[in-house]
Specification:
- Two copies of one chain form a homodimer.
- Chain A is an alpha+beta fold and about 230 residues long.
- Chain A has eight helices and eleven strands.
- A four-stranded antiparallel beta sheet of chain A has the order 1-8-3-6. A four-stranded antiparallel beta sheet of chain A has the order 2-7-4-5.
- In chain A, strand 10 and strand 11 form a beta hairpin.
- The longest helix of chain A is centred in the middle third of the chain and has 27 residues.
- Chain B binds a DNA duplex (30 and 30 nucleotides) through helix 6.
Chain lengths: ~230, ~230
DNA sequence: CGGTTCATTGATCGTGGTCAACTCGAGTGG
DNA sequence: CCACTCGAGTTGACCACGATCAATGAACCG
């Protein structure tokens, strides 16, 4: 809370909020870009598609996420954004962003923090897909999203979280097929590690799940941490 | 070139440059962080390792790259940086970065541009590893690095570039094994698409190579483009 | 020289993809 | 009210892409 003036400036810069149903597209890949979004509530995801239709989930967006702006001077989005649940977005034109950054250093710091954090999230996913086996990838994704949703580390036995993902989406995020994701979820269930059914995750054996995810030690803090900048 | 004053400020903020031989580690994963680096000359890479030693290349750094700063408030690096060639680094402490950002908006813009661009590079790699087959991944990586090194699109038949990569490094960047990378390079050679030997790439059939890489249309501009901000 | 590291190739194996069939709801329209 | 579709999930059978294991050669270097 850096004061009423800052908040007023933000209010002045933003356009009306957007309300989206699940599955709605915020923007398409290759669409021209000139606004930034702030996810107020709900979940969303960024995806990148190849010309032949194969699709990769780049990252999942939880409330508070900032997304949309492309490197300035680049005209087109390199990814698409899609709502996973009913979602509310705050929309800020690029000029508004620039003005806010210039006048409110804390806003600028926070924005940069968000972007750097998102890069680290993507890095973790990259390592997961490049180096882990199928069951490890699924375990990693479930752990990441559970911790981000719960904002807590470590996970405890019995923890339950709603994760608004279909098995197809998990497949697109892990680089597996939906069929194989199904098999891996069944295995986690049969091994009494975790249950993911009807878009709810229940952790049965947190230690086993974390062992499968084999996290680098610095990631949990990143997932559960909040911005050190209090603006907005 | 935003003027002598800005350059002088940068000079004042930076520490002595670092000169590194190939293979030198700039910083380790989980090392505390409080400086940013600017790669003056040479190539380097960022990697992330799992507890059991598996390693993923997150991105390749070419001259001009900015790297090192972690999201503020996070103590530890989530990745390691390693020189691939003899390299010269400009070292700027975090306080210096903050001061420069505050006083020179163009510096701030350029920094944010670099970070956003790097995120897009990582996104492309993520899609590649998640969705492409082995030979496509190798083709994609070669195309990306060739275009970034040449700063030109499209590639032409006969183009030759030095890429300071061992097959092991290509393997770590593509999520394949070094043995399989070797087979894919042989196949590219036998199919008369491209030759990669002794760390030099020669493009024989640019159209075929690009078809294998199946690039989303917005990426080439990103690879060959330079920052719209002229500071420093 | 022995000792690296890097590249190369063959043989074999297994993880994960592909194909196919089926269930189970939640719409939707006759 | 029931047939119909559509998407999500489930399971089995089969196969192939890429991993693994192993051996060898070339270049470089103390």
């Amino acid at each position: 809370m850096r004061g009423a003036a800052a908040l007023a400036a933000l209010e002045a810069a933003r356009k009306p909020a957007r309300y989206l149903p699940p599955g709605a597209i915020v923007y398409h890949q290759e669409e021209p870009d000139d606004v930034a979004f702030n996810l107020i509530s709900g979940w969303a995801m960024l995806t990148q598609s190849l010309p032949d239709g194969r699709r990769q989930v780049l990252r999942f967006l939880l409330p508070g996420a900032v997304f949309g702006p492309t490197p300035q001077g680049q005209a087109l989005h390199g990814s698409a954004a899609e709502a996973l649940t009913p979602a509310v977005l705050c929309v800020i034109p690029r000029e508004g962003m620039t003005a806010l950054r210039r006048h409110w250093p804390e806003f600028d710091d926070r924005l940069m923090w968000c972007i750097e954090r998102d890069a680290e999230l993507a890095a973790g996913l990259l390592t997961s897909i490049g180096q882990r086996t199928a069951i490890e990838r699924v375990a990693y994704l479930l752990v990441e999203l559970a911790m981000r949703a719960l904002r807590r580390f470590p996970l405890r036995n019995g923890d339950t979280v709603a994760l608004p993902l279909t098995q197809t989406v998990i497949a697109e995020a892990t680089g597996l097929t939906a069929v194989h994701v199904n098999r891996m979820l069944r295995e986690l269930r049969q091994r009494q590690v975790a249950i993911f059914l009807q878009r709810r995750l229940t952790v049965l054996d947190a230690a086993a799940l974390l062992a499968l995810a084999s996290l680098p030690p610095e990631l949990p803090a990143l997932w559960t941490g909040t911005s050190p900048f209090s603006f907005a």
